[in-house]
Amino acid sequence: MTARLLTVLTATLALAACASQPKPLRGDYVETLTPHNAILGDYTGAAVRWGGVILQLEPGPDVTCFEMMATQLTAGGRPYWTSNDTRGRFIACRPGFYDPAVFTVNREVTFTGRIAGYDTRRIGEYDYRFPRIDADVVYLWPVRERAEVITRPAPWPWWGYW
Questions:
Q1: Which tens digit of pLDDT belongs to each residue from 28-73?
Q2: Angle in degrees, CA 68, 129, 117, rounded to 5
Q3: Which of 100, 101, 92 is nearest to 137 (CA)?
Q4: 158: which residues sit within 8 A by CB, 6+ positions away?
Q5: 15/8 Cα distance (integer angstroms)
């Protein structure tokens, strides 16, 4: 009986470990602070873990900046869309070169870092205040493959209709 319980407990812990966050994304962050909330005040210096989809990539001579549309994050830290629930926009900058051929528009990325300040940029005719983070981690997620789910087979001509 004890061996069976130990086996079940070990299997449960192994599955729980698979569902955790990737190691680079772990840490203590202000989870309730979203980019939208950050523009309403001054949160310079706050440690955040934000993610979303790339809107624009700006490689510079020493640093690459990502303009992002923020989304919710899953428990594992991956960006997750829910019915137009955007969390605002933000800019994340990291030293080094990040290839625009790999970090393409609409790719999912999660960043960890601290809010370094705010930039004002134009979106159309609107001046938008972007929180800018100095990213410690840039985590590019694999592309989600779409799968067509068939709940029941199509009726074949020889099956007839019930």
A1: 787 789 999 999 999 999 999 999 999 999 999 999 999 999 999 9
A2: 85
A3: 92
A4: none
A5: 11
Give the total residue count for the chain: 162
65 in Cβ contact with 90 (< 8 Å)? no
For residue 63, CA distances in Å to 15, 69, 98 come to: 38, 20, 9
CB 139 within 8 A of CB 25: yes
Chain-centre distance of CA 98, in angstroms? 17
What's the alpha-carbon Rg for the chain, to the nearest Å?
A: 21
Residue-wise pLDDT tens digits, 131-159: 999 999 999 999 988 777 766 666 665 55
Q: How far apart (Å, rounded) are the C-alpha atoms in residues 38 and 115? A: 9
Give the pairing of strands 89-95 and 126-140. parallel
Rounded-to-integer distance, Cα 85 and Cα 12, Å? 33
Domains belonging to the chain, first-starting first, are 23-140 (2.40.50.140)
CA pair distance 47, 66, nearest whole angstrom: 18
Give the Cα separation of 1 and 12 in Å (integer): 17
